[in-house]
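Sequence, please.
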């Protein structure tokens, strides 16, 4: 295994998007992967499986769709949103959240430990959704250049994660971060305006957005 976090060309991925395996999930490898449009999806028998799917689910911040059902939540500020206040708790809740057609989460303790290190470096971020002082929803991901790479979300109250996602996209747009990588298609993300695009188009768009400076460090919602 080379010391440097080397990955093959994402276009060489197989039909499922699998591009390679590694025996570690160190922050340097994680950051190098995302910069190439690659992300780790799960761990099995000591190996981490890295993917670059085709097509890719992407949301442009300007295409965010807010349905009428969400407007009362937003107009009444039903929940309170913070950023980077409880990163580990958000990941732990995402790990416990039930997933359709999945017996268990890919978010193992190793994933939490690695992404927390990336968080401390200022590149991984969390969104917390609170009802009073209770964490009722949230999501996390990474940010490089003008791209936010969404990873996972959870919700314990009606529309809490959607509320947090909408608030995040609106905040990202203000910061000039206009491309949100949603990885793979879900009906939930499609309802918010995300669309599939080819891997080739995504990688081109990614490269353009990575030419800009990264908003690193602790984020503060305002």
């Amino acid at each position: 295994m080379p010391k440097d976090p080397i990955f093959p060309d994402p276009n060489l991925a197989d039909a499922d998007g699998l591009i390679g395996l590694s025996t570690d999930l160190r922050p340097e490898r994680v950051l190098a992967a995302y910069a190439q449009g690659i992300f780790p999806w799960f761990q099995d028998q000591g190996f981490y499986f890295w993917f670059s799917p085709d097509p890719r689910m992407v949301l442009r911040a300007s295409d965010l769709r807010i349905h009428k059902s969400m407007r009362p939540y937003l107009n009444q500020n039903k929940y309170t949103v913070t950023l980077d206040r409880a990163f580990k708790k958000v990941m732990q809740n995402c790990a416990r959240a039930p997933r359709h057609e999945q017996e268990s989460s890919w978010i193992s303790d190793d994933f939490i430990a690695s992404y927390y290190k990336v968080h401390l470096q200022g590149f991984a971020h969390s969104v917390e959704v609170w009802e009073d002082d209770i964490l009722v929803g949230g999501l996390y991901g990474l940010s490089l250049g003008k791209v936010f790479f969404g990873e996972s979300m959870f919700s314990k109250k009606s529309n809490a994660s959607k509320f947090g996602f909408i608030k995040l996209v609106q905040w990202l747009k203000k910061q000039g971060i206009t491309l949100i990588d949603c990885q793979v298609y879900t009906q939930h993300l499609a309802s918010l305006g995300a669309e599939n695009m080819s891997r080739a188009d995504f990688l081109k768009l990614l490269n353009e957005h990575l030419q800009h400076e990264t908003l690193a460090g602790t984020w503060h919602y305002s």
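The chain is about 30% helix and 25% strand.
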